[in-house]
Amino acid sequence: MLLNLQRYNLSIKFVSGKENVVADALSRAPDEKDESWDQYKKLNIYKIFEEIENIPQQRYLKITDNRLKEISEETKKDQTLQTLIQYIQRGWPDEANKVPDSIKIYFGYRNELSVENDLIFRGDRILIPQIIRRKLIDCCHISHNGVEATLKLARANIFWPGMNSQIKDVIKNCTVCNKFSDSQPNPPMMSHDIPTHPFQMISMDVFFAEYRGAKKNFLVTVDHYSDFFEVNILKDMSPQSVISVCKENFARHGRPQRIITDNGTNFVNKQMLSFAKQWDFEHVTSAPHHQQSNGKAEAAVKIAKRLLKKAQESDTDFWYALLNWRNIPNKIGSSPAARLFSRSTKCSVPCSDINLLPKIVENVPTSIEKHRKKAKEQYDKKTRRLPDLEIGSPVFVQLTPETSKQWTPGKVSERLNSRSYVVDVHGRNFRRSLVHLKPRTASPTCTSSQEDNVHPCEYSSPAQLLDEPSQNQPHDRPRRNTTLPSRLKDYVLN
């Protein structure tokens, strides 16, 4: 319209409505009210309400006749529901204080309840008597689905106050669901103490690999300060062979203050205990089936196996390849040989004599700390802190997590440290890491819950009685922190 008016020289002037005597279709009052039309609308509304009241809800229920008959019979036997039917049919008082204590919990639902053929409905959902509620929960959970799937099925057909919490408790303590539930997430990284000098703290592990056409047993000894590791061939896997090799390494590098191993029989035995006492070092063992606790040795084993495979494939000398590896600077900025011996060792790469002169590597503990801090930041992004366990508390435990992820019920009998526990399973003790343990609660019962005795004022609003979970309920998963946009910092928002 503006384009069409551009050829005219017009001036726009505002005129108030009372002075604008020219009538237009958009600003004039409509015709007078037709009372007959209002009466006609009211009559239609009454008819709609009458049709709604006469809808046979029982016909549209997804429940078998036998189940419906059982619910009807139990409803007649339940005195609380019979009192509730009387209030639904005769009307509710305005205040909850005037309602009997047995049905105060239904006061917030009073506008949604109806009665048909001795059955109570909340909307299109049937109210289940207390005595068969557990049976109905088992029917909803017969396929052993998760909490949300079971709740959706129950909410579509049945109802009673506190149904959500009871269903959650049943699923939480379901033996089948717990037996085949997911494994625990990894807890945040917990590093060992940072050593201040070479060979102060070492880790050891044994492995089996092919060497020169034959299967051999190897012992790996890795230094936490320098990452330098020794690889020794064992005659056999006996404790005597392991101790004999340890003495050779200790005579070469010095006696360590702490040795970290797994719980293999070649490390946990009387001979090793006597050896630790005689040579005066601390022997620390990791929890069984948790290789991450001895991660330094596991990493060294991985490198040694890779060098053995590649040396055999390329027909080169394994020990020559190991010599080269020890002179490669790693993420800390210096090579394992330089940190252990304070000099580089001569390898296959030509170098001047100056590079072979002794030179102390400065600030090694600080570099290790920085590297561990960065690694922890990246690792902890996919972890979650696991709750501590008390002695005597019931738990589920994974006995063989490498081969089976199934959970077995047990009880905590001893706490060794913050990440390691001893669990009693059918009279036998098992040491397991916290990641292989899960808290277990007692089996729930569907008796009268505490919700039946809540103060009446809490039921003054139906919004407080919704079946949806409370917003203050703790979440199982971590939540992202939310902040207001910077452009709204000067405003007060509700």
From TrEMBL:
<dbReference type="InterPro" id="IPR041588">
    <property type="entry name" value="Integrase_H2C2"/>
</dbReference>
<dbReference type="InterPro" id="IPR001584">
    <property type="entry name" value="Integrase_cat-core"/>
</dbReference>
<feature type="region of interest" description="Disordered">
    <location>
        <begin position="441"/>
        <end position="494"/>
    </location>
</feature>
<dbReference type="Pfam" id="PF17921">
    <property type="entry name" value="Integrase_H2C2"/>
</dbReference>
<dbReference type="Pfam" id="PF00665">
    <property type="entry name" value="rve"/>
</dbReference>
<dbReference type="GO" id="GO:0003964">
    <property type="term" value="F:RNA-directed DNA polymerase activity"/>
</dbReference>
<feature type="domain" description="Integrase catalytic">
    <location>
        <begin position="194"/>
        <end position="310"/>
    </location>
</feature>
<dbReference type="GO" id="GO:0015074">
    <property type="term" value="P:DNA integration"/>
</dbReference>
<protein>
    <recommendedName>
        <fullName>RNA-directed DNA polymerase</fullName>
        <ecNumber>2.7.7.49</ecNumber>
    </recommendedName>
</protein>
<feature type="compositionally biased region" description="Polar residues">
    <location>
        <begin position="442"/>
        <end position="451"/>
    </location>
</feature>
<dbReference type="InterPro" id="IPR050951">
    <property type="entry name" value="Retrovirus_Pol_polyprotein"/>
</dbReference>
<dbReference type="InterPro" id="IPR036397">
    <property type="entry name" value="RNaseH_sf"/>
</dbReference>
<dbReference type="InterPro" id="IPR012337">
    <property type="entry name" value="RNaseH-like_sf"/>
</dbReference>
<dbReference type="GO" id="GO:0003676">
    <property type="term" value="F:nucleic acid binding"/>
</dbReference>
